[in-house]
Amino acid sequence: MAKSPEEMAQTMINNLKAKTGKSLPEWLKVLKPESFEKHGQIMKFLKGEHGVTHGFANLIATGFLRGEDSLVPTKADSEDLVSAQYSGAKAELKPIYDAIIAAVQKFGRDVIVSPKKTYVSLRRNKQFAIIQPTTKTRIDVGINLKEVQEEGRLEKAGSFNAMVSHRVKISETKEVDAKLKNWLKLAYQQA
Predict the structure, then answer these.
(1) In this predicted structure, what is the pLDDT of residue 76?
(2) Which of 28, 70, 95, 114 has its CB 3.0 to 4.6 Å from that of 66, i.e. a possible disulfide?
């Protein structure tokens, strides 16, 4: 069964020394004298100077910038990210988000809902969709579909987001309909 983002982060922390030669506290000591302030600087240093793979470099950089104790996200952190996305002018979009989440959670117990700063990633074995409140009146649902042509509301993602192949623009809860659910279910099955 798929793991939660918290479990995946903890697994990476547990494997860090075996995969990179150093534990997280040891990597943090390596970074401290460098006076890095930006995530990208740390990533470049770890990958270029130490040969750390992208995923572990990201983990270490996040640990350095946040502090080791806050490295593994909590459920409260996830809820805060979603609340921030649907606050202020975008608050009226939250029922649409809730309807999409309710629909995808019916696909199986292995659906992982992983909030990020500006969108929510929907994963199974890999990401199959994202939900992003793009404007104050619209949510964009990015969907990864293999060998599916655009039709009607299902358009090519284009410049919207390189992590998905298609996009559906949603402005009302009633647009979380059978067609959208079928596209999402197909993407889930392909993941």
Answers:
(1) 62
(2) 70
Cα–Cα distance, 139 to 86 (Å, whole number)? 10
Angstrom distances, CA of residue 35 to CA of 29, 48, 64 = 11, 17, 11
State pLDDT tens for residues 161-175: 888 999 999 999 999
CB 122 within 8 A of CB 113: yes
**Reduced DSSP (H G I as helix, E B as strand, rest coil) percent helix, strand, coil of the chain, to 5:** 50, 15, 30
The alpha carbons of the chain give a radius of gyration, in whole angstroms, of 19
Domain boundaries in the chain? 5-70, 75-190
Instruction: Find out whether 188 and 112 touch, Cβ atoms under 8 Å.
Output: no
Instruction: Indicate the DSSP class of residue 181.
Output: H
Residue 9, both tokens: 């982060």
Could you read off the pLDDT of 109-133 as tens digits, one per residue?
889 888 888 999 998 888 999 999 9
Q: For helices 54-66 and 5-20, what crossing angle results, to 10°?
A: 110
Q: Determine how many CB atoms are found less than 10 A away from the CB of residue 145.
A: 19
Instruction: Give this prediction's pTM.
Output: 0.67
Low-confidence ranges of the chain (pLDDT < 50): 1, 69-70
The H or E element containing residue 121 is strand 120-123
The CA distance from 108 to 75, in Å, is 20
